[in-house]
Design goal:
- About 40% of the residues lie in helices and about 20% in strands.
- The chain starts with a strand and ends with a helix.
- The protein has a 7-stranded mixed β-sheet with strand order 16-17-15-14-20-21-22, sandwiched between helices.
- Helix 9 crosses helix 16.
- The longest helix is centred in the C-terminal third of the chain and has 25 residues.
- It has a domain of about 270 residues: Nucleotidyltransferase, domain 5.
- It is α/β, with parallel strands linked by helices and about 550 residues long.
- Bound molecules: adenosine-5'-diphosphate (ADP) and ribulose-5-phosphate.
- Adenosine-5'-diphosphate (ADP) binds next to helix 10, helix 12 and helix 14.
- Adenosine-5'-diphosphate binds next to helix 10, helix 12 and helix 14.
- One of its GO terms (molecular function) is ribulokinase activity.
């Protein structure tokens, strides 16, 4: 009888549940559940009239539970298999997405007294609320030459876990005191399934200043504020689980609610982008995976540890046991295209409707008739700040070269090129630091949706790009970890590498650079680099000033 695992990918806008065959990685069933409350940026769902500050991005934890409660039964039905064929579950989640819970694991926003308090809600990875707190942390850490900074590209991002916790500490002490634990959302889901708190070494390592040799920097927390020191012994408690391990088994209550076998193994959670690396089939050094969706993460595997300025982090054993994983990223890629697609004139929306295609596809079609450089435009892709290599959430986007003849497709293409130039800066940074890149994979929702984008990336990077045939690689990665959590004794696998080999997704296409484009993009990239350095380094205060007027 064939065996399957469940992989659940919690993205920015939706949760996706897959039922994956563990022998060949084929997807037998699926269910995508958009979050009913989406990304909460303006007003809390309780709608008491309070507007959220700019830069807030919150979520409703009930939306995640719906993915579990509705998504799992639907996906099993879609797969048309017996639930007894399921041998394990794996979870991946955007990160750092932080949930503050009470002693029973209930999110604080579910408490009546906190329902109108933004700090009691889930803080999504792209919540940029803790800017001031992050600056304070960074100043202190760099002035004390904190040794753990080197693991984070010598910087701290507002998008990470500790800045989010410190934001609650500074802005709302009542919520802080009431929180029994602060959890990564992926670990919270695992705790809902198993009844146990097991914190993933992947998100702890990349987002919480934790290191497997030195633990949390308790003394630094104390320097930050004497009362913040206790966060480690109180609100960050919990067993630490490693990628490839079992976090626990499904509680009896969950098995009967979901119609799943009793004692079903549940894997330690993994960050979504990192999970995609497994789904793509990357498990060797010198491979780089671009996980392209709302944002892009550029993840590399290597046997060696190098401390590289400007990256998001380097953590051992966080994707493939014994290898170092490196992460760098761009905070707005699909999000930038999505924002632009909403700004186009009515006439374009009408044209797309008449052709029965999306505005994205219409813009892509029109932009594909342009040659590199033809529009005379160049853009900076910092519409959600710059994650790598400048690590500055205050930076914003721009477009240079506009004339009265500029068309929406010119701007759209300039934005696509800007994200490719941003990726080139990140990749060059890895290479200059001594990480050799032999292969580049691309996956996530974007590569399959946008052919022109992938050709532009191949041309700008002047490298071949191997695109995965699956737009669900994070969920497949989670299913891979579910099969390792099950272990050989239950028909699963003993090692992550073995499971990756069996369950990795097929390749859709390899994009090769077009030489004439490569030459033109080399020139455009030089201009991009100058804009990048001028507005991102020399005159970086300008963008901050504009926001604070
Ligand atoms: N054809 C397209 N071209 C460019 N961007 C697109 C296209 N279709 C969707 N997008 C953008 O891609 C993002 C969705 O990516 P996806 O990987 O599916 O989600 P997530 O990042 O939440 O995992 C959205 O930000 C959307 O604006
Ligand atoms: O920071 C990240 C991983 O470390 C991701 O960018 C974040 O989780 C959002 O992912 P997505 O664009 O797939 O929604």
């Amino acid at each position: 009888m064939e065996k399957y695992t469940i992989g659940i990918d919690f993205g920015t806008e939706s949760g996706r549940v897959l039922i994956v065959n563990i022998d060949d990685g084929s997807i037998k069933g699926q269910c995508v559940i958009p979050y009913a409350h989406g990304v909460i940026t303006e007003m809390l769902p309780t709608n008491d009239g309070t507007r959220l500050p700019r830069d807030y991005a919150l979520q409703h934890p009930g939306d995640y539970l719906e993915v579990i409660m509705k998504g799992i039964p639907h996906a099993i039905k879609d797969a048309n298999i017996s639930s007894s064929q399921i041998i394990g579950i794996g979870i991946d989640f955007t990160s750092s997405t932080m949930v503050a819970v009470d002693e029973k694991g209930k999110p604080l926003c579910f408490h009546k007294e906190f329902q109108n308090n933004p700090h009691a809600w889930v803080k999504l990875w792209k919540h940029h609320g803790p800017k001031k707190e992050t600056e304070e942390m960074f100043k202190l850490a760099s002035s004390h030459k904190e040794s753990w900074l080197k693991n984070y590209g010598y910087n701290i991002s507002t998008e990470w876990f500790i800045p989010k916790c410190y934001e609650v500490f500074c802005k709302d002490r009542e919520v802080y005191e009431k929180a029994s634990l602060f959890l990564e959302a992926g670990d919270w889901i695992v705790s809902q399934l198993t009844g146990k708190v097991v914190r993933s070494n992947c998100s702890l390592g990349f987002k919480a200043f934790w290191n497997e040799n030195s633990g949390f920097p308790v003394q630094f927390f104390e320097k930050l504020h004497p009362e913040f020191k206790n966060i480690v012994s109180s609100k960050l408690k919990g067993k630490i689980g490693y990628i490839g391990e079992k976090a626990g088994v499904l509680t009896d209550e969950m098995s009967s609610l979901l119609g799943l076998p009793k004692n079903l193994p549940v894997a330690v959670a993994i960050i979504d982008a990192h999970s995609a690396v497994l789904g793509v089939g990357s498990s060797k050094p010198h491979q780089l995976t671009m996980v392209m969706g709302t944002s892009t993460c550029h993840i590399m595997l290597s046997k060696k540890e190098i401390h590289i300025p400007g990256i998001s982090g380097v953590v051992k054993n966080s994707i493939i046991p014994r290898l170092y994983a490196y992460e760098a990223g761009q905070s707005a890629v699909g999000d930038l295209f999505g924002w632009f697609a909403k700004q186009v004139p009515e006439s374009l929306m009408k044209e797309a409707k008449e052709q029965g295609i999306s505005v994205f596809d219409l813009l892509e079609k029109k932009a594909s008739h342009l040659e590199p450089g033809q529009s005379g435009l160049i853009a900076l892709d910092w519409h959600n700040g710059n994650r790598s290599i400048l690590s500055d959430a205050d930076l914003s986007g721009m477009i240079v070269g506009l004339t009265l003849a500029s068309k929406p497709e010119d701007i759209y293409r300039a934005y696509m090129e800007a994200t490719a130039f941003g990726a080139k800066i990140i990749i060059s940074n890895y290479e200059q630091a001594g990480l050799k890149i032999n292969e580049i994979f691309a996956c996530g929702g974007l590569p399959q949706k946008n052919d022109l984008l992938m050709q532009i990336y191949a041309d700008v990077l002047n490298k071949e790009i191997i695109v995965s045939a699956s737009d669900y690689t994070p969920a497949v990665g989670a299913a891979i970890l579910g099969s390792v959590a099950a272990g050989k004794e239950n028909g699963g696998y003993d090692s992550v590498e073995e499971a990756v080999e069996k369950m990795k997704q097929p390749i859709l296409k390899t994009y090769k650079p077009i030489l004439s484009h490569v030459e033109k993009y080399k020139k455009l990239f030089q201009i991009y680099q100058q804009l990048h350095n001028y507005f991102g380094i020399t005159k970086k205060s300008w963008m901050k000033d504009l926001k604070s007027l």
